[in-house]
């Protein structure tokens, strides 16, 4: 079997998977995508005092402002999750969660930690894809009304979402000299490029979902660490943030790459 035959077989398997799961995949993608906000909102409730004291001590902002910060994070994240899952005011919910990401990036000094910054940007990419999906649903309500075509903001949201999503994988590359690490980096980088440029997008994104799911369960198994240890919370945060990026990739699989992609341009050739 040649390389082209192998690729065609893989695409057939991916298409079959999509046909079977097309009714459920967008719902699963949205649930995965908001999981980190849901977990963080719940954590704000159970760790109210610790979070407030941390912000008060770090920024010397006083009891009232620190309490407002925790309350905003709690209501903003849980409220946004409810709106997205119920399909109500999705665009407003996404903008609210963008604000939460920006606020936490500054408040927790993530701006100066490249790994966490890239993961937050990847999370933003998932929200961009969710925004693009909500725009698509909104337009479908007005059948027959002329659209803005390929230059519509939706196409560029999908492009931006794809490019930001792959930043998650840049944090997973290991610069070791052993064969397995080199192979993993080569395959991972190839898949990242395919998703970013929108070539064989659904197959590449589905492969990344499987790869990232395996890495997430293996490396971020927070349930194996006692709850009182700091590593438990760290791995839990990592686990749900990675799950959110998986949700973004599942949206790419479900919706396709959009107009600004090689897959779409191939149809014109």
UniProtKB/TrEMBL annotation:
Its main location: endoplasmic reticulum. GO terms for cellular component: endoplasmic reticulum membrane; endoplasmic reticulum-Golgi intermediate compartment. The lineage of its organism: Eukaryota, Metazoa, Chordata, Craniata, Vertebrata. It comes from Myripristis murdjan. Pfam families: SURF4 (PF02077). This is Surfeit locus protein 4. InterPro entries: Surf1/Surf4 (IPR045214), Surf4 (IPR002995). Keywords: Endoplasmic reticulum, Membrane, Protein transport, Transmembrane, Transmembrane helix, Transport. GO terms for biological process: Golgi organization; protein transport. The chain crosses the membrane at residues 63-85, 92-111, 179-199, 206-227, 239-260. It is a multi-pass membrane protein.
């Amino acid at each position: 079997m040649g390389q082209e035959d192998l690729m065609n077989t893989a695409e057939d398997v991916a298409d079959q998977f999509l046909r079977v799961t097309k009714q459920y995949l967008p719902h699963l993608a949205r649930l995965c995508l908001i999981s980190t906000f849901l977990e963080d909102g719940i954590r704000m409730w159970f760790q109210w005092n610790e979070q407030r004291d941390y912000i008060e001590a770090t920024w010397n902002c006083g009891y009232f402002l620190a309490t407002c910060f925790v309350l905003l994070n709690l209501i903003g994240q849980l409220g946004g999750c409810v709106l997205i899952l119920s399909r109500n005011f999705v665009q407003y919910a996404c903008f609210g969660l963008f604000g939460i990401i920006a606020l936490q990036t500054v408040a927790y000094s993530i701006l100066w930690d490249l790994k966490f910054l890239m993961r937050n940007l990847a999370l933003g990419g998932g929200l961009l894809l969710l925004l693009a999906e909500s725009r698509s649903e909104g337009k479908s309500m007005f059948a027959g009304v002329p659209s803005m075509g390929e230059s519509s903001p939706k196409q560029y949201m999908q492009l931006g979402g794809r490019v930001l999503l792959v930043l998650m994988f840049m944090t997973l590359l290991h610069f070791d000299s052993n064969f397995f690490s080199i192979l993993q980096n080569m395959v991972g980088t190839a898949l990242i490029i395919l998703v970013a440029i929108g070539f064989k997008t659904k197959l590449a994104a589905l492969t990344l979902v499987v790869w990232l799911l395996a890495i997430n369960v293996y490396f971020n198994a927070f349930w194996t660490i006692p709850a009182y240890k700091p590593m438990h919370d760290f791995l839990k945060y990592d686990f749900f943030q990675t799950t959110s990026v998986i949700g973004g990739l599942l949206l790419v699989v479900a919706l396709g790459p959009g107009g600004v992609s090689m897959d779409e341009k191939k149809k014109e050739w």
